[in-house]
Amino acid sequence: LDRERADVHRLVVEAWDGGSPRRRGRLRVSVRVLDENDNAPAFSRGEYRARLREDAPPGTAVCRLRATDPDLGANGEVRYAINRRQSDPDGYFAVEERSGVLRLRRPLDREARALHRLVVEARDGGAQPEGGLSAQAFVRIEIEDINDNQPVFEQDTYVTSISSHTQPGTEIINVAATDRDSGMFGIVTYICSGDPHGKFSIDPQFGIIRTKKQLDHEAQSEYTLHIAAEDCGSPPLTSLLMLTAINLTDRRRDSLAVKIVILDINDNSPSFMSSPLSYVMEDVEVGFLVHHIIAKDPDEGRNGQVTYHILSGNENKAFELDKITGLLTTAQFLDREVQERYSLTVLALDDGSPALSATQVLTIIVLDVNDEAPAFLKQLYETAVHENRDPGEFVIRVEAVDRDAGLNSLLQYEILPGPGYEKFKMNSDSGELVTAASLDRETQEVFSIKGSSCHDLGSPSRSSTAQLSLTVLDENDHSPLFAKTQYQISVTEDLEEGSPILDLSASDEDAGLNGEVMYSLIDGTYGAFAIDSVTGSIITTKALDRETKSQYTFRAVASDCSTHFPRSTTVSVVVHVDDVNDNDPIFLQNPIRVFVPAETAVNETVATVRAEDVDLGSNGAVVFNLMMAETVFQINGKTGDIILWEPLASKDFSTQLLVTASDQGITPRTATAVVIIFTEEQEEVISFSHSLYEASVPENSAAGGH
Q1: Where would I find the Cadherin domain in this sequence (predicted)?
Q2: pTM
C-alpha cells in the first residue's frame, strides 16, 4: 500500500441468498492506510539563487526555501537548517527552522567576499529512521556592490619637473587612482583645480596631465595642482591629490651643465595592476567602457611602454581593447542569457628588445536585466479532477521558466479572473493548482480558464499566460430518477403472454456507467410480469386471470451500472386487471328437483334457481329464461323464481323445465339447468355439483380471504 497515492480504500461486500426472487445485502468497508515515514522532504529546486546588496541590514530576508514531505504528522513536518560543516562557517546567514526563510545575520562586504554558497538541509520529524529523513539544496547568493569605497591614488604626492621649452600638449605625468568597488562605482574620473591661468589640462578618463599653454619660468617657477579622483556613484566619492610642478631654468650662458643619463635595460616584465574581475550590465550600448586594464613596467623608455592585446576568449568579437590605453569596451550588444561569463586572456607587452610580457585572465560577469519574459512549458494545460472532493485537492502544476537571473527569474503564479476561476486557487510560488471548493460535474463538467499568469519579480515585472482546461470526472453521486413517483395502469385479462403493458423511464445525471440505467422488478409479480433490463418495458409473462387476481402491486428498480457503489431507486407499479367476458354462468345446483303439492295456488313461487358468473359488471349480471314455451310455469328473469302460472292438471303431475342463465356481456355466455317438478312425494337425493374441486391460494394471503 502507498498512503500518499490512496489513503482510503472503500470496498463493498455483497451477500445474497438462493431464493427466488434473490435477496441481497450489502456492507461498505473503509480501510484507512496509516502513514510510515517513507518519503524524504523534497525541495522545490535543487539550487536557489539570490542577490543581496552589501549594505543590507542583518535580518533582511534573502529568499524562501520550500521543501515538501507527503507524509503525515511529524513524518511530514519539515525543519530547515544550514549545514555549517559544508558552508557558511562564519555564520553570515541563518534560516528560520519552520518557514524556510533565509535571513542575513551579519553585515556584508562585497570587496571581501562577493559570492556566498550555502548548503541548506530539510529534515522531517519522523522517529524512524533515527533522526528522520533529509534532503539538501544549494543556495547561491551574489552580493551586489554599493558605492562604499572611494578612489585611492597610487601615491600621496606627485612631484615632476618640466622645461620652459615644453610645448603645449606635452604629457607631463599620468596620475592613477583605483576604486575597489565594481561596475559604475569603480570607474574613476579626474578633475583638476588650482590652475587659474589654465596652463594645464587633465584627461578626465585616464588622469593624463598635459601642458595647455607655453610656460614661462620668469613668470612662475612652480605650480601646485589639486587633482580630484571621483567615482561614478550617486552621490560620488572623491579623493584629493596635490601635484607640484617645477619650471626649470634654461641656463644657456655662463653655466656648466652636467647631464647624467642612466641607460635602462629591459629587465622587468609588465605587471598587471587592474582587477581580474569586472562586471557589466547586459543592456549597455556598443562602445560602453567595461574595464580599464592597467599594467606597469618599471623600466624606462620603450622598455617600459606597454601595449595590450587579447589572446583568447573574445572569439565572438564581443569586446574591443585599445592596445595603448588598455580601455576595454563592448563591440556588440551583450546578452546574459546567451553568455553570462567571459574569460579573456589579456597580454601586456612592453616595447623592449627582446620584448617581455605578462598575461592576465580577465573575468567579465554580465549582470542581468529583466529582458526576458517567463515562458510556460505548455500554452495549454489539460487535466481531469474528480468531483465531490474536499477543497484543497491537487489538480495540476503549471511551470514556467525565465532565462533571467536572481529576482528577475523568480516567478509568481496566479489565476486570471474568468468563469469558474473562484473554484480554484494557485500556489503563487510553486504553480500548484488546487480546488477551492467541492466540484459538481453535473453543474459544470469543463472549466476553461482563459489565463494562468506568471510574472517575475523584476522591475518592471514581465509576465506571460497559459490556458487551463479542466475536466471534472464523474462520481456516482446521483441515483436514477423515474419520471413518476408511482405508476398505475389497467390491462385486460385476455392479453397474450409477452404483451407490453408499460414503458418505464428513469434518468441518471451521472456519466458513463454511473449514468447507465438498468431495470428490474421486485415484490409480488407472481411470475406474471417481467421487465426489459435495458429499455424498461414491462411485459406479461403468463396469461392473466382477473377472477384469480385482479390487481398486482410490485416495485420496479432502476439501478445505475457503477462498478464501485451502484445506486438505485424504486417506484411502485400498480396493475389493474380489467374484466373480459371469459366465464359462463354456473348454476349452484343442477339438476333441481322440486316437489309441488297438487293444491298449490296460482302465482305462487314453487322453486328458485341460482346461478353465478364470476365476471364483473354486465359480464357477470345473470338473467334467467325458459328454453321452451311453457304455460303452466313462468320464471322471473332477474330472481330465478319459478312461478305456478296455471293450476296443476292432476295429482301425479310431473314435468322437466330447461332453464338458461345468460350474462349481459357483448357476446353473452349461457348455461343450462334442468328443473324437475313433480306432485308425488319422492325421496330427495342430495348430490354435489362437481365430484372434484380445485383451487390455488398464494402464500401470505390474509386470513378470511375468498
Answers
A1: 1-43, 44-153, 154-272, 280-376, 377-482, 483-587, 588-700
A2: 0.44
